[in-house]
Amino acid sequence: GAVVSQHPSWVICKSGTSVKIECRSLDFQATTMFWYRQFPKQSLMLMATSNEGSKATYEQGVEKDKFLINHASLTLSTLTVTSAHPEDSSFYICSARRTPNRDNTEAFFGQGTRLTVV
Amino acid sequence: KNQVEQSPQSLIILEGKNCTLQCNYTVSPFSNLRWYKQDTGRGPVSLTIMTFSENTKSNGRYTATLDADTKQSSLHITASQLSDSASYICVVSGPGGTSYGKLTFGQGTILTVHP
Q1: Which of A78, B2, B30, B65 has the fewest CB atoms lying closer than 10 Å?
Q2: Chain B, 83-112: which have a CB under 8 Å from a chain A CB?
């Protein structure tokens, strides 16, 4: 199956600093990638849809200036958590779909990034 | 409001036993339903994906069923193994038209397999 890789797998940062998380589709092109956030024992919550070459679409309640998304190529999207605070500590997961405009296209998930802000 | 409800919330079984996880959804219109396995601290991995017209789909020891009339799905795990211990997530996709269908996630069922 297709592979989506996230980096880093875990990161600890100081409050007030910024952290960048990378999401790469290793063996296919993804014009659209998705960023999720997951708190312990809860379901994945969509944060934003990342579109190659254009602005990301953010879900209601997600601060676009705090969670910066860049989708500069067909295989790479980055999520930068700016001025991180302890409440931003969470598990961040990206996913990518292989082909646009097909609803039953498989969604492949990265392995996730555990962010801890101290 | 589109929702996906899973039951039970958690389940403990002995190795070698079978189990069935349930998923009820209210997402409408509906495009497809997916089951994912998520190990602790990892991203979800796809088990099955079913469209409206499919009633059952198997992937090794995993068999998913879908009743689009009652909006119910189940995931049956046969001859469980210790490595089956994970969270199993039901995800329903609405039709996307010219864009990707929005995925609605269930809260997951945490399965623990004991030796």
Answers
A1: B2
A2: 89, 93, 95-96, 98-103, 105-108, 110
Subunit contact B96:A103, Cβ cutoff 8 A: yes
Task: Give the CB-side neighbour count of residue A101, counting CA atoms within 13 A.
Answer: 1
Positions of chain A with pLDDT lower than 70, given as ranges? 1, 99-105
Q: E strands along A18-112, which residues?
A: 19-25, 32-38, 45-51, 57-58, 67-73, 76-81, 90-97, 107-109
Q: Which residues of B are less than 8 Å from A49 in CB distance?
A: 100
Which residues in chain A have their CB less than 8 angstroms from residue B23's CB? none
pLDDT, tens digit, 9 for 90 and up, residues B83-114: 999 999 999 987 654 445 678 899 999 999 99
Q: How far apart are CA A86 and CA B96, in angstroms?
A: 35
